[in-house]
Amino acid sequence: MNLKELLQHFTIQLQNIYGAEEVSSIFYITADHISGFSRADTILKGSEVVSGQQLAAYLKVLEALKTGKPIQYVLGETVFYGLPFKVSPAVLIPRPETEELVEWVIESSSLADITGASLRIIDIGTGSGCIAISLKKNLPLSQVFALDISEDAIDIATANSSLNQVDIEFLKADIREFSTEQKFDVIVSNPPYITEKEEEEMHDNVLAHEPHLALFVPNEKPLMFYEAIADFAWVSLSDMGLLFFEINEHYAKETIEMLAAKSFTNIELRKDMQGKDRMIKCERARLY
To answer: Per residue in 177-200, pLDDT tens?
Structure first.
């Protein structure tokens, strides 16, 4: 069987789970992992026969995919902001939308980093560590902390910091109960924000495999983590410090109103690549 035939086989076997375009993307990720081929290489070398050992590896991946398990969990790895990350069902799979949040933080923080200022950054609900590690990699003069309630998530994030050769200080804690004397210049978070009523709209492979602890909040308290993080930020941000959130598109107005009520200023809402309200930046006003 050659690569082109393998792609056709994947498409037929997975047609009840994914569309043809998504199967192609999954196959190219698999080819990169198993054969070391880029998407272009896979297309150009489509007629090449796959060796027996590699064919077995492809078919093993296919069997796991047929259960609905996401390709990132099947392979145990993914790429985020151009960096490699280990993932498991203990952490969320990093999304492209979150890369946009990281880019915004870097844009807003780069001047201080260029001028030699030592920024103190904390990522709350770090999961795989993708935000914290990407920020440290791109703002190397900064001191980066990462907090999560899950011991398993901390373990994976720690492995990812080693993989990417950056120093992150990890903290195991519930942000609703956490306090510190330290001050931070940047606080960033992609907290749980999907309400229970939104579960029905989600893909089965997310519901079956990704950690619900990192996804869902009660219908009656959709902003529970945003409020807790905002309260923490008001006490722990330095003067003129910045707070960044990835948000639920359906609660952008409520999130802005909550932040304004807590006296945050220069509140800015940004849409993601799909045109959805997805990110907020705000500032802790200077205290006189």
So the answer is: 999 999 999 999 999 877 766 666
- Residue 84 tokens read as 């490699």
Nearest residue to 164 via CA among 133, 132, 131: 133
Which residues does residue 279 pair with via DSSP β-bridges, in sequence order? 246, 270
Q: Say if residues 75 and 61 touch (Cβ distance below 8 Å).
A: yes
Q: How far apart are CA 285 and CA 288, in angstroms?
A: 9
> Both tokens of residue 52?
């027996």
Separation of alpha carbons 148 and 170, rounded Å: 8
pLDDT tens, residue by residue, 165-180: 999 999 999 999 999 9
Token pair listed for 29: 């990720």
- In one letter, which amino acid is 87? V
- Give the pTM: 0.91
Q: Quick check: helix, strand or coil at residue 140?
A: coil
Name the phi and psi angles at 41, rounded to 5. -60, -40
For Cα atoms 200, 203, 205, give the angle at the middle one, nearest 5 degrees: 125
The residue with tokens 């789970």 is 17
